């Protein structure tokens, strides 16, 4: 007979305090994989970047306001989605942009993700020079549609 651990659910504030108590968070294999792709492309990588009480998988200092999260199957859980949403809202309130990919996307398309992030940051630099009202539609197109096409 196999023993399976019980899933324990905690509220968001408890989860945040647990995040705060991490002494030395360890990056996941997929974070190391994608971080390695950024390193190969000549970028410095920070793993488990702390923003307030939250940790994010990757931060590339060359892109100062960008955080990267890599989601495994546990992120499909409803409670985990709420936690992720809370983390993103908090990071956004602090001036960060969070980009998310799945483990599968990282393992199959790591180099393309690096190319996409570079293109995304160049695009953001260009649109920051334009009137905010004129950038909403192109920005949504780039972030929502372009990534799907890019990873194919």
CATH class of one domain: Alpha Beta
Q: What sort of overall outline do the alpha carbons produce when their principal axes are compared?
A: globular
Low-confidence stretches: 1-8, 131-143
Measured on Cα atoms, how large is the radius of gyration?
17 Å
What separation lies between the terminal Cα atoms? 43 Å
CATH superfamily of one domain: VSR Endonuclease
Our count of helices gives: 5
Multimer state: single chain
- Adjacency order of strands in the biggest sheet: 1-2-3-4
CATH topology of one domain: Endonuclease, Chain A
Give the class from helix and strand content and strand pairing.
Answer: alpha+beta
Strand content: 15-25%
CATH architecture of one domain: 3-Layer(aba) Sandwich
Helix content: 40-55%
Return the string of H and E elements: HHEEEHEHH
Task: Please provide a written account of the structure.
It is a single chain. The protein is of the alpha+beta class. It has a domain of 98 residues: VSR Endonuclease (Endonuclease, Chain A, 3-Layer(aba) Sandwich), CATH 3.40.960. The protein is built from five helices and four strands. It has a four-stranded mixed β-sheet, sandwiched between helices. A hairpin with a 2-residue loop joins strand 1 and strand 2. It starts with 11 loop residues before the first helix and ends with a helix.
